[in-house]
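[User] I wish I could look at a protein chain and see how it folds. I have put the entry right below:
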Amino acid sequence: MKFKVIQIGLVVVIVVLAYLVYETIQTPVRFNKEKDRRAEVVVQNLKDIRAIQQVYKMLNDSFADNFNVLINFMKNGKIPVVNITFDPSDTTLTKTISDTIGFVNVADSLFGKRQGFKPELIQYIPFSDNEKFELSAGKINRGGVTVPVFMALAKKEYYLKGLDLTLVKNEKVKDLIVGSMTEPTTDGNWE
């Protein structure tokens, strides 16, 4: 009888230990899946910010340094629609004639096909309970040339809010950044 009780006790201990080993392995796997899912959404927002900034720079020769300016630009800014034709007097087809034929709203041009897009929400990091992206812009000198730069940053603590904090603090888990304040680039650190 004692032998049976010991056997049942050992089976229970084995099952509990097997479950704990399984959970030890599965916790980081589940974290990585959720991290990747969230990062994909945040990266899309950073790409949207980059697209807006590039259009803003094209029309203003600088990047916007805050979201109020960017949101106002998306709502009220206009992008010229230009018709480019070859100069008929140029037989080499290297000269062109540009003619502005109209204007289109920035938000419609960039996000017109995206249902439910709201310009006001571009400033908020997804999954963060309304924490905002850090946005900065300025100019740097590269090779004697003044170059406009910008950077938008989503801290990992914000977009991974609610997940296991010890895994979030792992140095392999990165903040997501597009642009740079020290280099003339508009690349993201995920590219």
Summary: The longest strand covers residues 96-105. Strands lie at 78-86, 96-105, 134-142, 145-154, 176-179. Helices lie at 2-60, 67-76, 106-111, 156-159, 165-168.
